[in-house]
Amino acid sequence: MISRSKTLTFLAAACLLPAAFGVTAVAQSGDPSGTWTLNVAKSKYSPGPTPKSGTVTYSAAGAGTKVAVDLVAGDGTKVHWEYTADYDGKDYPVKGNPDADTASLKRINATTVEVQNKKGGKNTLLNTRVFSADGKTLTVTTKGTNGQGQATDNLQVFERK
C-alpha cells in the first residue's frame, strides 16, 4: 500500500498548471484551461509508486488560475486537492495536499511556469510546467522533498482531454 503523500507528489507539480483557451492562448499566456489527463506510460516517478490515473483541471481566476487535482493512487485511494493563485510569487493556500500547504507561481516565459510548494513555511517541491507549442501536451518536472522527507525527481506528461 502506498502513502497518500507519495502519490500526491506527482501532482504537486501538475497542480500548478493554469488557464487560457486554445493553442493561441497557450503561446500568449502559458495557461491552458481545461482538463489534462496524466499519461502514466510516458511519466516517471522517483520515488514511486506511480499513480493509476490522474487529471488536473485549470480554469481562469482573475489574474491567476484555479487548479483542481484528482488522482487515483497506486493502491486505488482517490485523492483531491486544489488551490487558486496569481502569478505574483506570493504564497497562496493549498487545500488537501500533504506535500504543500501553500504554492507560489512565477511565469518564466510564454509556455513555462514555476510553482514553489511549501509546507509549514519551508520549500518542499518545485514544479516546472512546460506547455507544448501546439497546446496538446503539458510536461511537469517536480524536484525537491515531499511531505515524507523523501527526495523527489518526477517527470509527468499530461495530454489535453
Summarize the structure.
By secondary structure, the chain is mostly beta strands. 12% of the residues lie in helices and 50% in strands.
Protein architecture, described:
The longest helix has 11 residues. This protein has one domain: Lipocalin (Beta Barrel), CATH 2.40.128. The radius of gyration is 14 Å and the shape is globular. The protein starts with a helix and ends with a strand. A ten-stranded antiparallel beta barrel has the order 1-2-3-4-5-6-7-8-9-10. The protein is mostly beta strands and 161 residues long.
Chain-wise SSE layout:
Blueprint: H1 4-14, H2 22-29, E1 34-38, E2 53-61, E3 64-72, E4 78-86, E5 92-95, E6 102-109, E7 112-119, E8 122-131, E9 137-145, E10 151-160
Antiparallel strand pairs: 1-2, 1-10, 2-3, 3-4, 4-5, 5-6, 6-7, 7-8, 8-9, 9-10
Characteristics:
single chain, 161 residues, mainly beta, Lipocalin, ten-stranded antiparallel β-barrel, 10 strands, 12% helix, globular
Question: Low-confidence parts lasting 5 or more residues at pLDDT below 50?
Answer: 4-29
What is the name of the CATH class? Answer: Mainly Beta
CATH topology group: Lipocalin
- What is the ordering of alpha helices and beta strands? HHEEEEEEEEEE
CATH superfamily: Calycin beta-barrel core domain
Summing up helix and strand content along with how strands pair, one would put the structural category as mainly beta
Q: Please tally the β strands and state the result.
A: 10
Cα(first) to Cα(last) distance is 29 Å
Enumerate how many helices there are, as a single number. 2
Content of β-strand = over 45%
Rg computed from alpha carbons, rounded to a whole number of angstroms: 14 Å
The residue-averaged pLDDT reads: 84
Share of helix, binned: 10-25%
- Taken from the alpha-carbon principal axes, the silhouette is globular
Write down the domain tally.
1
Q: What's the assembly state of these chains?
A: single chain
Question: How are the strands ordered across the major sheet?
Answer: 1-2-3-4-5-6-7-8-9-10
Largest sheet: 10 strands, antiparallel, barrel
Please state the second-level CATH architecture. Beta Barrel
